[in-house]
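Hello forum,

I keep getting stuck at the same step: I have a sequence, I want structure tokens, and every attempt I make locally crashes halfway through. Rather than fight my setup again tonight, could one of you with a working pipeline run this one for me? It's a single chain of 280 residues.
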Amino acid sequence: MAKTLRTQADYTIKTGTGSGGSNSVILDTKTTRVKGDLIVEGSNTSLETTTLTIEDPIIRLAKNNTNTTDTDSGILIERGVDNNAAFYWNEGESSFKAVLTTSDGTGTSITDTALTSIKVATTPTDSNHAASKSYVDTEILSAAGFILKIAGDDSTQITVATGNTLQFTGDSNINTAGSEPDTITLTLAQNLVNVNSIDTGSSNGDLILRANGTGDVVIDDTLTFSGAASTPTATAVTKLYNKTPAGGGTGLYFINSQVSATEGELISKKKATALAIALG
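Reply #2:
Ran it on my machine without issues. Output:
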């Protein structure tokens, strides 16, 4: 027989010392229906049900978040002996993340142990939809009009057709090597060959040939001096240069401020012999 309990004011059921005690109210019934708002004021709500059905189309999480500290919020799935899974809003990164985690959902943050995959429809139907890897790969390989052009220093354009490989090849002095991820390394060979000229990169700049350590700069062939436009400035190093031959008969001059402020000409064997005879 149905019974109705009606009161004219609030009605309280209290066991022992109430919420601070250890006693419980147990409703042993097939269905418990609350006609009105249900407010649970406690630190934990646990539902031990097989199926949870919610009519509300929007679930609000982190209701009392004041945004004074970073608070992650989302759904966490228990996975037994394996790390839990979570799909949540990461407040610190301002993004949604799908991760594996050791967090148990009792705090205000999720500790990621690894990112995990999200499957989406193979073919997106809107420009803002997430696309699957399969869809992106197919679109790139079959895209009509997809043309990659490469140009060198001479501005000559090379078209790389779909499915082809762009290969970097070195000359006798340059070595190229490919490595993952997406790296091409260019290496200048230590022994340069087939080099016809070396020019400095700046106007009036010095070209320096320097051996390593106590090694020498060795000339294995004829060394030619072009005519100097003027006598260079004397410095504390020896400078060799070519000008119109004078008394020395060689046209090969040197200048060094530690020797003299003026230039000197290297004397030829013929001139040296004649000078020796003349001087007796």
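The two ends are 154 Å apart (CA to CA). If your local run keeps crashing, start a new thread with the error log.
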